[in-house]
Amino acid sequence: MLDLGRTFLQSVERSPNALALVDGDVQLTYTQWHRMILNVADGLRELGLQRGDRMLVVLQNRWEMATLHWAGQFAGIVIVPLNWRAKPEEVDYCVTDAGAKAIVYEPVSADSVAQSAAAQRVPRVGLDDAPGRTNTFDALVVERTRSGDVTDTTHATADDISLILYTSGTTGKGKGVPRRHRHERAGALAHVAQNLYRRGERTLGVMPLYHTMGVRSLLAMALVDGLFVCVRRWNAKLALECISKHALTCLYLVPTLYHDLLADSAFASTDTSSVRKLGFAGAPMNDGLLKRLSAAFEPELFVNHYGSSEVYTFSIDQDATKKPGSAGRAGINTRLRVVKLDALSPDEIAEVGEEGQIIVDLLGDEAFEGYWNRPDANAKSLRDGWYFTGDTGYFDADGDLYVTGRVDDMIISGGENISPVDIESVLSLHPAVDEVAVAGIKDERWGQRVVAFIKRREYVDSDSLDAWCRQSDLVNFKRPRDYVFVDDIPKSPVGKILRRKLQAGEYTPDSQAQAAQPTETTKE
Predict the structure, then answer these.
(1) 302 near 278, Cβ under 8 Å?
(2) Are 435 and 456 in contact (CB under 8 A)?
(3) In which residue ranges of the chain is pLDDT below 50?
(4) For the chain, which has fewer Cβ within 10 Å, the N-terminal or C-terminal residue?
(5) CB 353 within 8 Å of CB 230
(6) Any idea which fold 410-503 has?
(7) Using CA of residue 40, residue 7, residue 158, residue 380, what is the dihedral sign?
């Protein structure tokens, strides 16, 4: 199998003059970008990095970040991307845990790097005159004289590690997920196939390159000689400008960012007709947003992608609006099962319609082989050749998968297992609801009570929402017992709802009105 450096060379050879990368005024063809990537790869070697060494990168989605990622693939250097908002202790942990031999950062992340003792012991490449640097990025980019065939400039094999992604664990330290070149290439190929990408697609490079969705977009564009347009920090208005200016053809975002696009005042006046393919992942998309996006873009393809850092694709549904909430069926490189919630073996399979834990075959081409330095995590999640995802879901009678949440998010109220996602889907369809999140709050009688946190589009009260739920097909014991109106739903940097913050009271109440409680609390 080809390594990722040779994969990039395919596009250079096929489409040397095609536009490959845009970041503001920076515009590079495949030939120009390739030359720069080789310069940076040489510069990293001059810095003392060798094949197999790890390099921590704490940057926003800028052209330098994308270039470093590809330079690592050519040089055989393992990229360890980290959230640019990372705190000093997170930088310190990742430098130490990954055994990083260098770190690249910018002014926005300089304070965290400066306060990390571990970061001070390795070469520090700073962008934009970032304080505390021992080297500059400009020194990496400088043109170097090289001889020989360009194919000789790749120093990795398909079995080498491409990158280590650190999961944003809800508790404790993040877990490092090492992924080989062949895992990454297989995931990118599947992404191209499952999203029906053609040669020359153009996408918005806004999903962070420390997250599997951002990396997948970057690699997929190279596979199809496409264009990656960097957006350093999410801004809906800027994203809309990029879509129009560069005639972007496909979007791959988390639901939150789609919500922001539609909500921006510039959406109605922006030409988005070039966008023909929508894809989303990272979190479920509620029924209301699905309908609004479908009407706004009228896409020829609308893909719900369900996966993780560990195994890029679990399942896909290429017609997300046909069966709202369905995550479809196993991806091209994947086998899936749903086992009983308390299953210890992959053979304890749940019945059709029975909610259980979703597990994935580790023999799939996209699957990782185990966590970095975490035998405890391996023991918990890897069993008999299957990855136990920690996600809950079920298969319907047609064989389609429905993801209902996390094992840890399951609400247990009066002895009943209740998934937040079902309730969120119903409430999202109310015209006054902008966003909704449901969580279980401790209750002396029920153990947990179902509470819906609502961000309103227009005024609505709890009685109206309760009546909406009663008129739906939501069974009574799942109906929220409280409604709390908030200014915003707390989310992670990639758009996942942070239910633990809602449960801990870490939110700002909506100033329009105080929540009122429905009077009936009888279980049926």
Answers:
(1) yes
(2) no
(3) 170-171, 514-524
(4) C
(5) no
(6) GMP Synthetase; Chain A, domain 3 (3.30.300)
(7) positive
pLDDT value, residue 514: 45
- Give the count of beta carbons closer than 10 Å to the beta carbon of residue 498: 17
User: Looking at this protein, which amino acid is placed at residue 294?
Assistant: S
Query: What's the pLDDT at 519?
Result: 39
* Distance, CA of 233 to chain centre: 15
* Beta-strand pair 124-126/135-136: parallel
Spatial distance between the Cα atoms of 127 and 63, rounded to a whole number of angstroms: 12
pLDDT in tens, 361-401: 999 999 999 999 999 999 999 999 999 999 999 999 999 99
Residue 499 pLDDT: 85
Q: Does residue 382 contact residue 362 with C-beta atoms inside 8 Å?
A: yes
What letter represents residue 489's amino acid? I
Residue with tokens 């937040």: 420
Domain-wise residue ranges, the chain: 1-207, 234-407, 410-503
* Helices 420-428, 287-297: inter-axial angle, 10-degree rounding: 50
The two domains 234-407 and 410-503 share their CATH topology (first three levels equal) = no
For residues 63 and 30, the answer to whether their CB atoms sit within 8 Å is no
**pLDDT for the residue 22:** 98
Distant-in-sequence contacts of 122-128, Cβ < 8 A, 24+ apart: 122/95, 123/47, 123/48, 125/47, 127/59, 127/62, 127/64
Residue 73's pLDDT is 98
pLDDT number for residue 309: 94
| Domain 234-407 CATH assignment equals 2.30.110.20 | no
Strand ranges inside 171-312, DSSP E:
176-180, 202-205, 227-230, 250-253, 277-280, 301-307
3-state per-residue secondary structure call for 339-400: ECCCCCCCCCECCCCCCEEEEEECCCCCECCCCECCHHHHHHHEECCEEEEEEEEEECCCCC
DSSP 104: E
The predicted pLDDT at position 524 comes to 40
Q: Which two tokens stand for residue 524?
A: 């049926």
Q: Which fold has domain 1-207?
A: Rossmann fold (3.40.50)
Pairing of the two strands 447-456 and 482-485: parallel
What six digits make up the tokens of 121?
Answer: 């012991």
SS3 per residue for 183-209: HHHHHHHHHHHHCCCCCCCEEEECCCC
Structural contact between residues 91 and 82, judged by C-beta atoms closer than 8 angstroms: yes
Q: For residue 149, what pLDDT is reported?
A: 57
Cβ atoms 423, 404 nearer than 8 A: no
